[in-house]
C-alpha cells in the first residue's frame, strides 16, 4: 500500500497537482487569493505543456524516445538528492548573510523591480561562471548535452548544480538587500519562466513570441543559448530579463539563416547517461593528468573549457570571435 501511495505522491508531485487536489477535497477555495494558492494553480502548467509536447510529437509521428529518456533518467536521480541540498543551501546563505545586507527591502512592488534586477544579475553571474570555469562547466554540461530542445531538457541537471547555483544567487541577493520573502517570490516566477523557455518547436515553432522578444528572454533566445553553432556559443545567460546580457555584450538574437545545432561541442554519446552525467569530468581528469606541472593542472580546473596549456586554445570566446571575423571578411569582399 505504501508503494502505491509513494507512486501517487510522486506522480501528483511531478505534475504539480497535489495542492489543487487537496483544495478540491477540502472544498476551501479561499486559498486561491493567497500566494500559495496561486502557486498551486501555476505549478501544473509546465508538466502539462510537456505532456502536450509529447502528444503532439506522437500525433505528427515525430516522437523519439531517446530525446526524452536521458533527461528523465537525470530527473529521477536528482529527485532523490538535489532538491534537499538546494533547500538547505538557500536557508544556510540567508541565515549567514542576512545580517550583513547593505540595506533592507520590503515585499512591495517597487522593491520587486529592484529585487528582480538584482536576481537577474546574480543569475547572470552564476550562469556565466558555469560556462567560463571548467569545473563548473562539468556540472552545467549535463543540461547542455541533449541534442534537441523540449521541456524535458529543463529536468536535465547534474545534482550539484542547483545547490551551487543557489549559493551564488542567494548570497548576492541577500547581501544586496533583497528581502527573503521577496526572494522566494522571485525564485518562483523565475523558476516557472526558466522552465517555459525550454519549450520546443513542437509546441511553439517560432520562439520569438512577437514583441515580447524585445523585452524578455524568450524561448528563441534560450534556444540560441543551447546551440553549439559558433555564433551562438556562450550567449544569452539571463533568464527572464535580458538586461545584463545587453550590458555585458553576451546578447544574441536567433538568426533565420542559421539552423540551430543543439548540444555540446565535444564528441559524445547523447544517449549514454554515463557520458551525459560524467563525461566532462572524465575529460577534465584526462587533461589534468596529462598537463605538465602543478600550475597547468590547476589552470585546467579554473580556466574556460577549450583552454590548453600549449596555447592552442579552442574556447567558446575564440571560436565565436573567429566566426564573426570570418563573416565580416566575406561581407567586405
Automatic annotation (TrEMBL):
Membrane topology label: Multi-pass membrane protein
Transmembrane parts of this sequence: 41-60, 72-97, 109-129, 172-193
Domain of life: Bacteria
One Gene Ontology cellular component: endomembrane system
Keyword annotations of the record: Lipid metabolism, Membrane, Oxidoreductase, Transmembrane, Transmembrane helix
Domain Fatty acid hydroxylase: 113-250
UniProt subcellular location: Endomembrane system
GO molecular function: glyceryl-ether monooxygenase activity; iron ion binding
Any Pfam family hit: FA_hydroxylase
GO biological process: lipid biosynthetic process; membrane lipid metabolic process
UniProt cross-references to PANTHER family, sorted A to Z: ALKYLGLYCEROL MONOOXYGENASE, STEROL DESATURASE-RELATED PROTEIN
Protein name per Swiss-Prot or TrEMBL: Fatty acid hydroxylase
Amino acid at each position: 500500500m505504501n508503494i502505491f501511495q509513494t507512486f501517487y505522491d510522486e506522480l501528483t508531485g511531478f505534475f504539480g497537482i497535489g495542492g489543487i487536489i487537496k483544495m478540491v477535497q477540502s472544498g476551501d477555495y479561499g486559498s486561491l487569493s493567497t500566494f500559495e494558492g496561486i502557486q498551486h494553480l501555476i505549478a501544473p502548467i509546465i508538466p502539462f505543456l510537456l505532456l502536450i509536447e509529447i502528444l503532439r510529437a506522437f500525433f505528427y509521428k515525430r516522437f523519439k524516445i531517446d530525446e526524452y529518456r536521458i533527461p528523465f533518467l537525470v530527473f529521477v536521480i536528482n529527485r532523490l538528492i538535489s532538491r534537499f541540498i538546494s533547500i538547505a543551501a538557500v536557508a544556510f546563505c540567508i541565515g549567514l548573510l542576512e545580517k550583513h545586507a547593505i540595506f533592507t527591502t520590503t515585499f512591495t512592488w517597487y522593491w520587486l523591480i529592484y529585487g528582480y534586477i538584482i536576481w537577474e544579475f546574480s543569475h547572470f553571474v552564476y550562469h556565466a561562471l558555469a560556462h567560463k570555469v571548467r569545473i563548473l562547466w562539468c556540472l552545467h554540461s549535463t543540461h547542455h548535452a541533449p541534442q534537441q530542445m523540449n521541456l524535458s531538457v529543463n529536468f536535465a541537471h547534474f545534482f550539484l548544480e542547483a545547490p551551487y547555483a543557489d549559493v551564488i544567487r542567494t548570497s548576492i541577493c541577500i547581501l544586496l538587500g533583497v528581502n527573503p520573502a521577496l526572494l522566494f517570490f522571485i525564485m518562483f516566477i523565475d523558476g516557472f519562466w526558466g522552465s517555459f523557455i525550454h519549450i520546443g518547436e513542437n509546441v511553439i515553432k517560432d520562439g520569438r513570441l512577437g514583441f515580447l522578444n524585445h523585452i524578455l528572454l524568450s524561448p528563441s533566445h534560450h534556444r540560441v543559448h543551447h546551440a553549439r553553432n559558433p555564433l551562438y556559443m556562450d550567449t544569452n545567460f539571463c533568464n527572464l530579463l535580458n538586461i545584463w546580457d545587453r550590458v555585458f555584450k553576451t546578447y544574441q538574437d536567433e538568426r533565420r539563416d542559421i539552423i540551430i545545432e543543439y548540444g555540446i561541442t565535444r564528441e559524445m554519446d547523447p544517449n549514454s547517461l554515463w557520458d551525459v552525467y560524467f563525461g566532462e569530468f572524465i575529460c577534465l581528469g584526462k587533461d589534468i593528468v596529462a598537463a605538465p606541472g602543478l600550475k597547468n593542472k590547476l589552470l585546467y580546473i579554473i580556466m574556460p573549457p577549450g583552454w590548453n596549456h600549449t596555447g592552442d586554445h579552442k574556447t567558446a570566446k575564440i571560436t565565436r570571435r573567429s566566426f564573426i571575423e570570418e563573416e565580416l571578411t566575406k561581407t567586405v569582399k
